[in-house]
Amino acid sequence: MPDRPYRILLPVTKSTATVPVLEIASSLIRSHGGEVVALGVVKVPVERPYSYGTMRAYRSRRLIKRLTESDQAKEIAIRSVVKVGREVAPEIVKAAKEQDCDLLVLGWDMASERRHLGGKLSELIKEADRDIAIIKPGQVRKRHNVLVPMRAGVHSTLALDIAGAICKQFGAKLTVMHIFDSEDELGQGMADRQPEPISPIGDGEHPETISVSSDDVAATILEEGDRFDFIILGASIRSSGRQGLGDIPKFVARKSRSTVIIVNSRQPDPIPTPPKSACCPTDKYHRTYQVEVWATAQR
C-alpha cells in the first residue's frame, strides 16, 4: 500500500457507471480509505476539431455530478475529471497514470466494450499498468454471498481483497473454491481432503472453503456460482499470464446471472511462500496458505 491515500479510477458512461459498479468501488474506499476519481472521456472524431467535444464534455460532467450525488457515493471522497481525446482507451490509460491510481474499475458488457472502447479492452489492460477490476453487474441485485474460485493464478490477493471489502460492506458470506484437475491424482486427493478452516475476516464469520476437481473449469465455476450473488475471479485463471482477459472469465461473465468481477493484478502475488508443512507441494501457488495469510491480515 503506498504512503498516499488509496485511489480508484472509475470511467463513467451511462451504461458502465451503474449502481452495482459504484457500490463495489465505494466498498473498497470504505475498506482502504482514499478516494474515487470519476473519469469522463469525450471522444472526438479525427475529422472534427476538439471544440466539437465541448457540449459532450458538459453532458459528461452532468452525468458525473449525478453519480457523485447518489446514495452509493455518500460518505466517500469522490472527485471528477473530464478528458477529451480521439480514442477512449488511451485516455483512460493516461488518466490512470496522471492520477496515480491504484485500481481501475470498469463497468463492462460486450456492447459497451465495442461502443466505448472500440473492442480494445485487452489492450487497455496491458497498457494501464494498474490493478484492474472489470465488473459485469448481475441480473439480480442481492449481496448475501461471494464466491472466489482459485486455480494457480497470480491475481488471488486482489480477488480476495475485493471480496473482503464487499463482505465487510454488506455483511456477505465469503466462499473460496479451490479447483483441481480431475485427471491429476494428487489434485484429486486435495479435492477430496477436508479443507482447513480459515481465520475470520475482521470481526466477521470464517470464510468457507470448498475443493472440487474438474476437467471443465468454466462449467464448474458457472454451476457452483449460480447460488452466489458475486463471483470474483482472475483474468487469467488457467495461467500466470497477464495478457488480457482469458476465455474462462469472459465465458463466466457472459453466461452467469450473478455479478461477475474479473480482476487483473499488475504485480506478482505478494503473499510469501509457506513453510513446507503448510500445503501440498504440488499446489503450485499455495492457495490455502494464500487465503489464510490474507484473512489473518484483515483482522
Please explain how this structure is put together.
This protein has 299 residues and is α/β, with parallel strands linked by helices. The protein folds into 2 domains: 7-136, HUPs (Rossmann fold, 3-Layer(aba) Sandwich); 145-297, Rossmann fold. It contains 10 helices and 10 strands. Helix 6 packs across helix 10. The chain is globular and about 60 Å long.
Summarize the structure.
The protein has 299 residues and is an alpha/beta fold.
Q: Would you tell me the overall average pLDDT?
A: 78
CATH-scheme architecture of the largest domain: 3-Layer(aba) Sandwich
Strand order in the sheet with the most strands = 3-2-1-4-5-10-9-6-7-8
| CA distance, first residue to last residue | 17 Å
Runs in which pLDDT lies below 50 for 5 or more consecutive residues are: 188-198, 271-286, 292-296
Classify the secondary structure makeup into a structural class.
alpha/beta
* Count of separate structural domains: 2
Main sheet record: 10 strands, mixed
Element order, helices and strands? EHEHEHEHHEEHEHEHEHEH
- Total helix count? 10
E-strand count: 10
- Quaternary organization: single chain
CATH third-tier fold name of the largest domain:
Rossmann fold
Instruction: Indicate the percent of residues in helices.
Output: 25-40%
Query: Overall 3D geometry?
Result: globular
Q: Kindly provide the name of the CATH class of the largest domain.
A: Alpha Beta
The CATH homologous superfamily of the largest domain corresponds to HUPs
Rg: 19 Å
